[in-house]
Amino acid sequence: MKTNQKKAWLYLAPTIIFVTLFSIYPILRAFGMSFQSGSLIDLTWTGFNNYKYIFSDPEFWLAIKNTLLYAVISVPVGLAISIMLAWIIFDKVKHKALFETTFFMPYVTSTIAIGIVFRYIFNGDYGMLNFLLRAVHLPAPDWIDDPAMSLTTIIIFGIWSSLAFNIVILMGALRNIDPNFYTIADMYGASGKDKFWRITMPQLVPTIAFLLTMNIIGAFKIYTSVYALFNGAAGVGNSGTTAVFYIYNKFQTVGTPGVAMAATVVLFLIILFATFLQRKMMKKIGEN
Description:
Layout: H1 2-33, E1 36-39, E2 42-45, H2 49-55, H3 58-92, H4 96-104, H5 111-121, H6 128-135, H7 150-175, H8 179-187, H9 192-220, H10 224-229, H11 243-253, H12 257-287
Antiparallel strand pairs: 1-2
Helix pairs in contact: 1-12, 2-12, 3-7, 3-9, 3-11, 7-9, 9-12, 11-12
């Protein structure tokens, strides 16, 4: 028994060392740096000064507000659309593999590349989106250069970006549902709506819980989309700034790593709390 335990620890050692060096240590290091000020090579202990600074910084609160709004809107809307599209493909479409490949392609494509394409789509003067809106006599806002539209633009892009991964995972979950459930439901004359809500959705709860967790964490860490859409900025007047963009700006551009790490710790706690609430909610739904 002891020999087996020693072998197990021996096999696990590379993974434990890797996780410690590249996951646990950076978290502890970030927490320690959040109480220090100065340049990266000359940090001095200053206590809670960095936390006092970020909590009194309007830009930090704007970043947190934008991040929360992005997560609250884009995650459920994106997941709902993904479930609808996955169900339509699974139930109605014959050549499912082709559609799955088509939907999954954006997931393996660079976000920067896609963001550049969408920057042209969202262009207020010659963008495709405004061309279509004008064609049906709807308002055509300036998606990129209007500060009031920055967050809306990011949310729309975020919803579209989330579909690829969500649909492929949901398609896999739909295939694992026992077809006998639907056969019995047909024998009793169940409608398509009844089969979806009474068979499909309950079977998808574990998968939806997983996707919610992944999407929420991803939403709170949004940075690349903002960078790509607004050409390296965060919208006009930083109107589209997010928590990670704020952290990057304070660390790389302004050169205040202590402030950046204080914001990182706060963001980490927010993600932890949001994930905890989401898992508790999904657990209650699964029990009902």
